[in-house]
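Ticket opened by: R.M.
Priority: normal
Category: complex prediction / small molecule

The reporter submitted a protein together with pyridoxal-5'-phosphate and asked that the result be attached to this ticket for the collaborator who will pick it up next week. Submitted input follows.
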Amino acid sequence: MNMLTNHPPTSELQALDAAHHMHPFTANAELASRGARIITSARGVHLTDSDGNRILDAMAGLWCVNIGYGRDELADAAARQMRELPYYNTFFQTSHVPAIALARKLAELLPGDLNHLFFASGGSEANDTNIRLVRHYWAARGKPEKKVIISRRNAYHGSTVAAASLGGMSAMHAQGGLPIPDIHHIDQPNWYAEGGNLSPEDFGRERARQLERAIEELGEERVAAFIAEPIQGAGGVIVPPETYWPEIQRICDEREILLIADEVICGFGRTGNWFGSETFGIRPDIMTLAKGLSSGYAPIGASAVSDEVAEVIATAGEFSHGYTYSGHPVSAAVALENLRILEEEAIIDTVRSEIAPYLAERWRSLAEHPMVGEAVIVGMVGSVALTPDKAARAPFASPPGTIGTICRDRCFANKLVMRHVGDRMIIAPPLVLTRADVDVLIERAWRSIDETWQEAKRQGLLVAG
Ligand SMILES: *Cc1c(COP(=O)(O)O)cnc(C)c1O
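Result attached by the on-call engineer:
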């Protein structure tokens, strides 16, 4: 029996999964007792699981399936490339057509003078590249002591040792002796959770100025770069106050440090423009790309680098860094086809002019629910904060994620994928969502939140902490 096309019953698959498959970001013992949800196919914005349920995927997989599932053009591009040249490397003075074509296309789409691409297999690897790139850059400019990278608490930059160090997830740092040296974290611009009595505008400026103070304390001669996501994704879809990015940009302009925008989620239309940097007026020296670059159809990531940084690196001899799959021809061919579809079908224009405004209007209506403290959204990425006390923006007394997990499970039961981060519920649906899909999404989200509210009341969990 071919297990992929004619699969055993769900319970058998779950037992095999638990016996042999170690899952990322999962309590594996708990998973073994409950059994994984097994997804067997997908089309458009819908998943099908091994029991035949059709589920609206409001997370686009893991924030990546921007053009939606089931596009034959990408399958054809992959098959064509596998037949013609399934693999060759880009090391040691060699290259191939897909990597060249993708680099040129990205240089055309990227803002400013981000005209140079270093490829990786995903976002974590690209951020590892960025660490080595910025340190090598300053060393090449005769300042090898400029090594410290400033990042933020509750940032997510990936899961390798270096990328997890760069990120500011305390649960990740608690395992395996992270962070590595010379990474410094400042606070996040999360007004809802940490803004207290400040206005969002004052709070945004105040949090940005932490960067200025950190540079002063560490010494500008030691700081290589600042890295941040335009909108924090895995941290809970934290949209910074409007004052935040202009102030960060001012500080970076005035200091001799590089600015890295981690656009792994925000890139490729997520915020209603090609890049989140355009939405927020950020002018990065380096950009991290992955996820939507191939709409998740093949693993690929990249560091996009400015003319100036690329020139310094180019003239500094050999950059002793690279991945076997840097610019993998199949991934590059798939990414190119994805970009063609995004562009020719004007998907991002439709998002900006039509779907995102409608989704925003409907998403914000969730804030009318008694357990929703705020509902925020930019383009096609949004979150709601669940709370027992709206006026106080209070967290629950129960351990963070208790209510979020209930809500996530209610969503699955109602055939909707929303993810929880603590007690925030988040969405990042495919960009090809229709208005009718938006109506279904909001209806299921409201129902799931409402059922969670009833359940929290029943369990006596509607208590502020
Ligand atoms: C997902 C993500 C990464 C890591 O990408 P991988 O492809 O999982 O290695 C890095 N940065 C951000 C902002 C992400 O959301």
